[in-house]
């Protein structure tokens, strides 16, 4: 059993290992169903944590988890650093040069873990610990992204949230929002209390203040929640990542205004139960 672990480790299999999709038949078959003519442009990154990836038990851990990504040209700022839960642009070092790749939810694939014994990851591709952390956190958001009340979403539906923030994609690293109440559908006339923290990289805030961009960002947030009968924006700040406390993160949820969607119909009132919301 221990030989299984050592065999996989000796072949180079770890979280972050990369391999061309066309080298593993099972992956190639899956990708061919999506992009039949462009399989050669895809690589796969192992995302399962190390202990599970090389586990001696194929009963407990039957599958290897990969994210299949496609090479692209220049990245789009709104898809960097895991800001958008539906698409990620990620840099990799390929033969000592930086190239960008695109990941989407369709690229999450499972194959039989025993297949790894027949292959070795490519040494031409390298992903840093920082980028691997961004990738795994982006994946987790597929399951952890919060749902806001349907009526809160409905009130924002026509506010064009994406346009408001797209202008600042190059400086904003994340938008964190607290909605009170979070799990209750308010009737018309009752206001949702909203707190917004716009995060920027450490060392950026001074320059934003000097260029007046900090004020512009806060005004954009203010405009988004300007309907006084619908919202009470009680907190609106731009903060460097290092200044955001654990308490703030517990109270605020990472939000994606660039790709806000509302799929549900606002609840008719009176409401006797609370809605979980859709996003």
Would you kindly provide a written description of the structure presented here, covering whatever features stand out?
Helices cover 27% and strands 25% of the residues. It has two domains: 2-144, SH3 type barrels (Roll), CATH 2.30.30; 150-259, 2-Layer Sandwich (GMP Synthetase, Chain A, domain 3), CATH 3.30.300. Residues 258-279 have low confidence and may be disordered. It is built from nine helices and eleven strands. The N and C termini lie far apart (45 Å). The strands form two sheets. Strands 1, 2, 3, 4, 5, 6 and 7 form a seven-stranded antiparallel β-sheet that branches. The protein has a four-stranded mixed β-sheet with strand order 10-9-8-11. A hairpin with a 2-residue loop joins strand 4 (88-94) and strand 5. With 279 residues, the chain is α+β, with helices and mostly antiparallel strands. The longest helix is centred in the middle third of the chain and has 16 residues, at 129-144.
For the structure shown, list the relevant keywords.
GMP Synthetase, Chain A, domain 3; disordered C terminus; 2 domains; 279 residues; single chain; alpha+beta; 7-stranded antiparallel β-sheet; 4-stranded mixed β-sheet; SH3 type barrels; 9 helices
What is the fold-level CATH name, i.e. the topology of the largest domain? Answer: SH3 type barrels
| Radius of gyration from CA coordinates | 22 Å
Q: What kind of sheet is the major sheet?
A: 7 strands, antiparallel
Can you write the helix and strand succession as a string? HEHEHEEEEEHHHEEHHEHE
Number of strands: 11
Report the portion of residues in β strands: 25-35%
């Amino acid at each position: 059993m221990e030989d299984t672990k050592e065999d996989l480790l000796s072949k180079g299999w770890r979280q972050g290992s990369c391999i061309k999709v066309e080298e593993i038949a099972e992956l190639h078959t899956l990708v061919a169903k999506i992009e039949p003519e462009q399989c050669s442009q895809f690589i796969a990154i192992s995302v399962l944590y190390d202990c599970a990836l090389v586990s001696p038990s194929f009963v407990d851990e039957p599958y290897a988890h990969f994210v299949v990504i496609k090479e692209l040209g220049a990245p789009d700022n709104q898809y960097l650093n895991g800001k958008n839960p539906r698409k990620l642009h990620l840099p990799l070092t390929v033969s000592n040069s930086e190239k960008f790749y695109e990941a989407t939810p369709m690229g999450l694939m499972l194959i039989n873990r025993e297949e790894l014994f027949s292959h070795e990851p490519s040494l031409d591709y390298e992903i840093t610990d920082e980028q691997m952390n961004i990738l795994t956190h982006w994946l987790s958001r597929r399951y952890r992204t919060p749902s806001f009340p349907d009526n809160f979403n409905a009130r924002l539906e026509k506010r064009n949230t994406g346009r408001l923030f797209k202008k600042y994609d190059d400086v904003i690293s994340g938008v964190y929002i607290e909605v009170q109440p979070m799990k209750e559908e308010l009737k018309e006339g009752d206001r949702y209390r909203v707190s917004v923290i716009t995060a920027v990289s450490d060392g950026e805030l001074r320059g934003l203040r000097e260029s007046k961009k900090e004020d512009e960002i806060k005004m954009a947030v203010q405009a988004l929640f300007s309907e006084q009968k619908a919202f009470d924006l009680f907190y609106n700040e731009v903060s460097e990542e290092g200044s955001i406390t654990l308490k703030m993160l517990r109270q605020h949820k990472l939000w994606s205004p660039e790709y806000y969607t509302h799929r549900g119909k606002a609840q008719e009132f009176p409401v006797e139960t609370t809605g979980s919301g859709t996003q």
